[in-house]
Amino acid sequence: MQWFLNTVNVGYRHSVVGLTALLFGMGGGTVQAQTPDLIENNLLAELIQVDLYLGRQISDGDIVSDADFETFIDTEVTPRFPNGLTVWKANGRYQDASGTVIAEPSNVVRLIFLDTQANETALMEVIQAYIAQFEQETVMVLVDEDVTVEFVPALDPPPVPAIFSE
Fold it and tell me: What is the CATH number of domain 46-147?
């Protein structure tokens, strides 16, 4: 655990990926799915930050409920990334396949994890599960491989705020 107390500085690469879940290649009139490579895996595992932008509007006009979203986090995300994550609400807009701009409530899930192929696979499983379960066209993914993470321990004893000292 000591290595978490040290600053971790990761190699540079910052990219925003509008992920359509399946990247399409045309050939002979057929559509072939390809798995995108979201993360530039290094030989030495480093920490990276990934933000998933998860739209909450379902194709039939319903909205993913707070309870259903929490269940998704509990059953799909947390088991794959048990070291922690952060979720916040957002208001998103995107252009659908027909060209229509759609506003929808969204959630952002921030993950910081080791840059390994196993974690990239787990990330793709989360994305595909969300798309399938909530009938989404896409999930937008922000990958930042240039992050510095430091866990600052509490000072012993904690400082007394100036307002309480004379």
Answer: 3.30.70.120
